[in-house]
Amino acid sequence: MALNPQYEEIGKGFVTQYYAMFDDPMQRPNLVNLYNVSVGGAGSDSGWNRLGILWN
Known about the structure:
Layout: H1 7-23, E1 35-36, E2 47-48
Antiparallel strand pairs: 1-2
């Protein structure tokens, strides 16, 4: 699995969006939508949905 060449831009965009949602008390409950729990152990593809676009 190769890293997406735009990983820095994607990562910064995710962090910007995450903190904008976190800082807004009305949007904070929606942060749960950014997280995706997958079945599997350590090293599985579980975690933040947006981070999935870092790999192609």
